[in-house]
Design a protein that fits this description.
The protein is α+β, with helices and mostly antiparallel strands and 134 residues long. The protein folds into two domains: 70 residues, no CATH class; 55 residues. It has three helices and six strands, in the order ββαββββαα. The strands form two sheets. A four-stranded antiparallel beta sheet has the order 1-2-4-5, with no helix packed on it. The radius of gyration is 19 Å and the shape is flat. The two termini are 35 Å apart. The chain binds zinc ion. The site of zinc ion has 8 residues, from loops.
Length: 134
Amino acid sequence: MSHRQKKCVVIVFGDGDLCPRCHQPTRIFEHREIGKKQRRQPFYYSRWFRCMNASCQTTLIMPERFRVWNCSDDKRASLERWMVKHNEQRKVERETERKVEAGELVLWGDTWDDEAAQVMCPESAEPNERPPWE
Ligand SMILES: [Zn+2]
């Protein structure tokens, strides 16, 4: 491979885990080398998957087993608490999606006012929330 083609990530041979959303095969990626950028972060992923299904909304899958920690145990514990909280939120979102797809739950009724919409979706008003290390 020439120098011009050098990229900071490489595709690993074989398939990754099936995409959690569409259950299609994924590609495996990893960093070509672990540099300053990765070491500056509290953690990085040694490997991750990318869903190759163009119509799927899930693009990157970053399994916990590939997470590598760079920080102190205290910081790690607090970050893990933060991530658990956010995974909880995603679980609720997925469950809601499933129910909507199954026709069990109507999300937006035409006759509902804004207040009712907020009650249905209490956690969704923070799209700009950043991880605490940024
Ligand atoms: Zn997918």
